[in-house]
UniProtKB/TrEMBL annotation:
One MF term in the entry's GO annotations: glycosyltransferase activity
InterPro entries to which the protein is assigned, alphabetical: Glyco_trans_1 (IPR001296), Glyco_trans_4-like_N (IPR028098)
Positions of the Glycosyl transferase family domain: 130-245
Record's signal peptide: none
Domain Glycosyltransferase subfamily 4-like N-terminal, chain residue ranges per copy: 36-112
Protein name in UniProt: Glycosyltransferase involved in cell wall biosynthesis
Membrane recorded as keyword: no
UniProt keyword terms in alphabetical order: Glycosyltransferase, Transferase
One BP term from GO: lipopolysaccharide biosynthetic process
Length: 307
């Protein structure tokens, strides 16, 4: 474990210093898009989760994007191997950073298959609407398209169904406009960050899980919702075209398009009933054991590159 020193600059120093210390028969894994500025003296691997800015311009402001690309580019150049989490992310990395595709290994995430939850906690229940609800669970940030989603729940025909949207997750980066749209929406309830227990209970209790993201490197919440048999409606942007399986496709990601498509999903009884079987069957493809085995192969490859 690399000790974090507080702030982006402190982490950069810690990650670079760790890489410059020579260790035999060890591998450093930089697991979150950053790494050493200089070529590591110990075998190293970096995981890059995608390049949203290849397709959209709302993920970061120009300064943030410059810093992010600089850090990621140096991390990949300084490491022996590169891991990413979907074929679409691998294509984005190779295209944007001009990386040889043979250096990139695609390793899908796994997903847990939990049992039945104990129900929503009393504290969270007090913040929830009565009756059925749709759910978005994830970070609040521009890439997640929550402005259009919040507006969709106030528009006909979706608003006419009387099913509100619950949003659970952290306020992440550049969240201000999304937060303002959530506050304005009459049929949206923001409940903040929730515990793992409440996360499971919310997913299992939702009538529909919605994920209209503008770009994903993987899209873990989509798989988690399908694993518990909850109907899912999501976009096909980035990796979601690979991992979304039997979910309801959200094509038009404007407020009007989402209102129409989500209303149709919520009124399709065959789709809603079938998700209890089709979702878990699809989620079985994503196994942590497979992910672990693939990581071990990459670590061995990184070590062998130093021989």
């Amino acid at each position: 474990m690399i000790p974090m020193r507080g702030g982006a600059l402190g982490n950069l120093v810690a990650e670079t210093a760790t890489g410059l210390a020579k260790r035999e028969n060890e591998v450093i894994h930089y697991s979150a898009d950053t790494g050493a500025l200089l070529k590591t003296r110990t075998a190293s691997v970096v995981t890059v989760h995608g390049v949203a800015s290849r397709w959209i311009d709302v993920a970061r402001n120009p300064r943030q994007e410059f810093i992010w690309r600089s850090r990621v580019g140096r991390a990949m150049a300084s490491s022996d191997r590169i891991i990413t989490v979907s074929n679409s992310a691998a294509d984005d990395i190779a295209n944007v950073f001009q990386v040889d595709p043979s250096r990139i290994e695609v390793i899908l995430h796994g997903v847990d298959h939990p049992g039945e939850s104990e129900g929503i906690s009393q504290e969270l229940r007090e913040a929830m609407p009565d009756g059925p609800y749709a759910l978005y669970l994830g970070n609040v940030e521009p890439r997640k398209n929550l402005i259009a989603l919040s507006e969709a729940f106030d528009r006909t025909p979706l608003a006419d169904l009387g099913i509100p949207l619950v949003i659970a997750g952290r306020m992440a980066w550049n969240f201000e406009e999304s937060a303002a749209a959530i506050d304005r929406a009459r049929n949206v309830h923001y409940v903040g960050f929730v515990s793992n227990e409440d996360r499971l209970a919310l997913m299992q209790g939702a009538t529909l899980f919605v994920f209209p993201s503008l770009y994903e490197g993987f899209g873990m919440p989509v798989i988690e919702a399908m694993a518990v048999g909850t109907p899912v409606a999501c976009s096909r942007r980035g990796s979601l075209a690979e991992v979304s399986g039997p979910s309801w496709e959200l094509d038009d990601l404007s407020a009007e398009g989402l209102s129409n498509s989500l209303a149709a999903a919520l009124q399709d009884s065959d789709f809603l009933a079938g998700a209890a079987q089709s979702g878990p069957e699809w989620a079985q493809r994503f196994k942590w054991d497979d992910s672990i085995d693939a990581h071990i192969r990459v670590y061995r490859s990184a070590l062998e590159a130093r021989l």
